[in-house]
Amino acid sequence: MNFPTPDLAQLNEWSRNTLSEHLGIELTEVGDKYLVGRMPVDRRTHQPMGLLHGGASVALAETLGSIGAALQVDPTKKACVGLEINANHIKGVHSGYVVGRATAIHVGRSTQVWEIRITHEETGALVCLSRITMAVIDLPAKPSSAA
């Protein structure tokens, strides 16, 4: 990473009052071009048949990929926004936690590609494999204040 990385407490604070907080997503590890987080499989993340909802898996994947991408740019000059996300749902989960590990595949000037592998915390079984493409955009220039 080229810029100081916030600690996990600061990163988790970014999720206050968001979908991530509602789903119980918690970031657990951050490193050079990777990010790990976990999410409960419970009433908040179930679909009607009592399985982990595929949309909840995608929300976890997008959360991890987006935050991971944001950590690769100068936050005073650039932002990262999602262009495309896909997910292959491999195995159903009824309970416990799933763990997502987002790993940078490509970190470029204008785009980033991240792979997110979501596994069952207890068994290690692959639950979902996702990939997100992020656009790196310029933040609007702040007007200079006249003296």
TrEMBL record:
Q: What region holds the Thioesterase domain? A: 49-124
Domain of life, per lineage: Bacteria
- Its GO CC terms? cytosol
Q: Which InterPro entries match?
A: HotDog_dom_sf, PAAI_dom, Thioestr_dom
Keyword terms, alphabetized: Hydrolase
Pfam families named in the record: 4HBT
- Do you know which PANTHER family this protein is assigned to? 1,4-DIHYDROXY-2-NAPHTHOYL-COA THIOESTERASE 1 (PTHR43240)
Task: Name the protein family.
Answer: Belongs to the thioesterase PaaI family.
- Annotated protein name in UniProt: Thioesterase
Which organism is this entry from? Hymenobacter crusticola
